[in-house]
Recover the amino acids of this structure.
């Protein structure tokens, strides 16, 4: 397993990758997530772990451009479920839902692979599988960082 990278966030909002010894962007952090490279973002002044905050910034950027993943109605539900009485149940429900979605996608991929094995589309299927695995891992990482710490 790769060693966890430490990224420091400076007061000027710049991110510094201590492993690469260079400044990086939010897109670079997104690439670390997609490549499943472990990292932690630390506020340079306070020493506080602000990884979740940075991940949420990345999600915000992705949601503001192109085709958003979350509708306004879904975001409203997220806000409503931040109350103490529903938070835990909602978090567990979301984690289970994403897990089930990932399992269904894997099953569908497996069935398609069996159908298309040996055909010219087999190469495209393999590329799609790699993309789906990357997406699933990113979702799992995001959800694990969204869960409240006990």
């Amino acid at each position: 397993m790769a060693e966890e990278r430490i990224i420091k966030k400076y007061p000027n909002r710049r991110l510094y990758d201590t492993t690469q010894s260079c400044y990086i962007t939010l897109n670079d952090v997104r690439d670390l997530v997609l490549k499943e490279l472990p990292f932690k973002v630390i506020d340079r002044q306070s020493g506080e772990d602000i990884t979740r905050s940075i991940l949420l910034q990345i999600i915000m950027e992705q949601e503001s451009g192109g085709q958003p993943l979350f509708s306004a109605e879904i975001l409203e539900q997220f806000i409503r479920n931040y109350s103490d009485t529903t938070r835990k149940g909602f978090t567990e429900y979301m984690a289970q839902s994403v897990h089930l979605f990932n399992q269904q996608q894997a099953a569908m991929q497996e069935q398609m692979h069996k159908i298309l094995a040996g055909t010219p589309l087999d190469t495209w299927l393999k590329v799609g599988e790699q993309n789906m695995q990357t997406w699933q891992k990113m979702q799992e990482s995001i959800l694990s960082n969204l869960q409240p710490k006990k």
